Each structure stands twice: as structure tokens, then as C-alpha cells.
Amino acid sequence: MGKERRTNVIPLPEVDGVTLERIIGFLKIYTEESFQQFTVQEKKKRCDEFFANCKFNDFLTLASASNYMGAQVVLDEACQRTADMMKNKSVAWVRKNFGIKNNFTPEEEEAMREKHEWAYEGVDPDDDEEDII
Amino acid sequence: MSNGVDWADLPPELLQTVATRLPTLADYIRFRVVCKNWRASALVSRFYLPREFPWLMLPLSRSSGGRRFFNPLTKNLHRLTLPEASHGRRRAGSSHGWLVLIDESPSIFIINPLTRDRISLPPLSSFPNVMKFDFYSIGREYTLRSPENDLYYYNLRQMRDAFIKKVILSHSPYEGSKFIALALLNRHENLAYCENGHGPWKIIDEARSFIEDAIYFNSSFYAVNKFGSLAICDLYGASPKVKFINVGQQIGGDMQYLVNAMGDLLLVSRYLEFEIDIEHYLEVCKTVKFHVLRFEWNEQRWESIDNLGDKLLFLGANSSMAQLASDHPGCTGNRIYFTDDYSGANYESITDDHDVGVYNLEDGSIETIPCYPRNSHWPIWMTPSLC
Q: Is B253 touching A (CB cutoff 8 A)?
């Protein structure tokens, strides 16, 4: 965000209003002096509360917008939560739930999997109870 | 997607940030197979890879294919294809993610179990005290010379199991610059080294008897003897430069380990207890406690410490190492993870369970880690590394 304001309005075309409000809301809490006095657990609790109402896709938008705005704190939090969702999930699960098209050829994919076969074993079963998006 | 942002097309730095926050190496590897952009964004570099808890390489099992590695923190069992570590090969070391393998031929090599890259080290026959190697002299293939100039013979198995106590590396060969391998030799208590896998092995004459343990620390090899004194070897010049720190203090325990614990030089004494199992005519041996000391540079002596704080130590036939519990969510510090590295060269070991477990410095309790099957392939700690 710019330090000097020449006009009253700063256009942020990449960020929609709702997301912007969310980011500002979070930053407000985070930068309050009292927040820094909290212990790690208390800070985590407040972050959890704040993000509790965020749906999966919201993280995506938050992360993307934070990146654009340079709000590192929100970015880190959003990325952490995204990583937490992927933990121990299969490649197929990630592609399905993140809506990603596999652009490797079957040969390329086979070669990659052969390199570290062990990493594809022991993942969570793919059938989810509910849609997380 | 309702708000139109495409996960596949996110900027690389954002994807890298997500990938680095994944908890395990396996998660990171799978992340890189999702699509091309994800693969390109998540780099294979030490800086970005998640910190994986050390793995315990389990004994060779006839039933499953591949070698099994156990992560004591996540309790995951990983099966790796590693025919190089087959039945006849002994792990003489585990250092910076590489295993040191010896078998009944003279060859010695190091291998990274994850990438299966391998580098040869000079063969057993190239140690200065090996006068002759003759494959056809059955039972006396190696002719060796003692420091007193006596000749004696070792067969292939003795040479594999008894000649070398441990091999450590200065750093991983992946780290670019030339690595040095240091071998602790049992019988005449010698230290020998080679640079970048080029032979022959050279013996560090001045450092004889400093073979309890050795580590690479501050660009030198630190080796300790039974009394806690140190030989500090600078091996980067044309010939070794050795300095000594004579501690002259009482050190207890049956075995000593040196550890670089985040800059602190630690000496860990291991206490074993022998019991006779009359029923089975067995001598059972197990670890009962560890005593940790830290080197105080100002006083030039070892001072006892009773708490490791956030630190975890990993001791055994591997290069002794330390990790921080706070780097591994769900992990508690102040513990020593250990394996059996004292049953000696006798592969016909008949003792009880493998002596493998976790020692808690808070209360001195030991939690054993069961390792099956019980055979001559002793468990060893390994730090999985892709680069």
C-alpha cells in the first residue's frame, strides 16, 4: 500500500472488495499492539477464529490478493492452511479438489513416480465425505 | 472456480510458499507431480524442502521387497528400492544422507538411498596397513601389518565387519566442494581419510587411539579417545595438521559419542548393562543411560549438562547428529535416539531384541523401538535427502 496518498482512492483491480475487507480486517487485528503481547497459542487462537469462516476457495483468493498487496502475514497464514489441506493426500486428490488439469504425458508421469515410488504409498484414501470447496 | 482464480496458474513464489509448508518430504515430492507449473515452482533445494525427521533403516526382511525405513515421529514406514544394500553388505556409516556400504569384496562406496546416486571410495585393499589382497588365498585374503611390524591375516568377512569401525563424511557430495571421508579403524585404533573418493586411504599417524567417535566440526575433524581428550585434524592441506586438547578428566560409561549440537560440542557417554539369561544361555546387553557433557572452551574441559532443551541427538553407527524438536511439529526435545552399534563384528549375534530406542533426559526412562526381524542388519539412523 502506498505511503503517500495523492488521491483519496487507490485502485486495486486484482482484489475484490470482500477480500480486501477481509485482509484489512486481519491486518488490523494483527498490527494492534496488544496482539504482539499474546503468546503463540493465543495468537493462533485468534487467527483460527478469524479464518474459521473462510471456505477453501477463500484461502486461494486471500493468498493471491495478499501476494499482490504484499501483506506477508496474511499470505503466510493462507499458504500454511492450504498446505495443511494437502497433507498426506494423493496426487489425484489434489488435482481433483484444486481443479487442476494434469498436463504431463503418461510417460512423464510414470518416470516421475518411478523415481520416488515410496512417496506415493501410505496416502489417505481418496474418497472424501464432503466437498471441501 | 467461483471467483475465477486458477490454482494451476498461480505465481511460482506463491506455490513455493505453499510447498515449503508441507510437513513431509513425501508431500513435497507428490506436490511436484501435480502439474508442470507446480513442478517448476517447487524447487528441489535444501532451502525449500521440508525438514524431515531422521529415518531408522530397519533390518533386511525376506518378506517385503525393498528396504524399510521407519520415521519415529510420523510412525510412517517407507519402502525404498535399494538392492545395493543387500544381505551381504554392511552399513559402515550414515552421514549427511549417504550410507557407506562395504561387502566381502574390497569395494567401499557411498550411496544416497533416495536418489540411488553412488560414489566409490578407495577400496579396502588400499589402506596403508594392508600389504596384500589375494582373492585366492581362501580364509586369508588380506595380509595386514601391525604398527609393530607383525603380519597377520583377515578373511573377507573379518575385513568387512571388523576392520572399519565407522566412516563419516565432512559434508554431502551434493554440496559441491570436495568431500573428505574419515574412517575409524578398529584393530590398531587408527584414523584414515581420503578426499573426494580418491585413493589411497591415508593414515593420520598422530591421532592414533582417538577412535571412540569423530565428527566434522568447524572445518576440521574432531576425534575423541576413551578419556575424553580430543584430536583436531585439519585435513585440507598436503598433510594432516593435528592439534590436541588433553582434558585429563574422568569420563565414565562404556562408549563415547561426539556431537555437534547447533554449535555446541557435546560428549555423550553411553552406559550398558550386561545380564546373563541363564534359561537361554544368552548374554543380554542393553543401554541403561546416557550422560551428556558440553565442552566449555574457556575452561577447556567437559561440563555435565542435564537438559538438552529443544535438542534431540541421534547416536549409533551413523555420524552423530543433532536436530531441534521445534523444527518438527509434535516432537519433544531433550531426548536421545539411539541404535545398537556395539554388538561388534560378530554377525552371529545371539542377544535379545535390538537395543534401539529413545532416552528421555527428563527422567532417565527409555522407550524401546521394536525392530523386526532380529538379524544381523542392525538398524541405523539416516537423514533422507534429495539434494
A: no
